[in-house]
Specification:
This protein has an 8-stranded mixed β-sheet, with helices on both faces. It has a two-stranded parallel sheet with strand order 3-8. The longest helix has 17 residues. The protein is globular, with a radius of gyration of 18 Å. It is built from 6 helices and 14 strands. About 5% of the residues have low confidence. The chain is α+β, with helices and mostly antiparallel strands and about 230 residues long.
Amino acid sequence: MAKFLTTAAAINEIDRIITNTKEREHLVLICPFIKIQDNLFQNLQDVDRRGVKTTLVYGKSDLKPEEEKRLKQLENLSLLFLENVHAKCFFNDETMVITSYNMYNASGQNREMGVLLTKRDDLECYSDARKEAGLIVRLAEKHKFTGTSVKSTHGMTHESGFCIRCQKGIPLDTEEPFKPFCYECYQQWTEEPDWYYERFRHLCGKPTDTTRDKPFCRSCYRKIRKD
């Protein structure tokens, strides 16, 4: 059953969620304000080196240059912005914390509350919260790091395709049944294929709602059929 969390307990459980995320799982962090404590950031670096795909959604204020510089080091991070996000939710494929705590240094000095959910013991609540988190992820826009171009993030041409979940460059698949995922995202999809729509087009890599069966927009689909 759900467990109530105090400030320190919420921080500890978020730390466990990050460190316990397995290589082929997906880590999602949603919070309006970001100024990550050093120990939490070190754990994010560790899971990033292990190849864990991390999605971080923030809003409300611009990232400080020093924070952007740190996050830019994480090669497997998808950093997204949604202006009206006010939820604070942190989860992997097994465990979730919903809390008033922001990933902000000063928040650790405040009186916060939270709730711990697990997929095993609180499946309905965990699934409902994860669906809402999926909507937040779909509505968010990709953060454009200073000095980079979103269009050329992966340096791919139209002879190659994009993973429809993480936008990683992969071989283009134009024959049904389509294979529009990288290996890691395909493993995630096989475990929970319907928890949210995917985020990118397979041919051009542009953000939009897609699925495994429909990984192309109409214009991209017409192009591959003409080719």
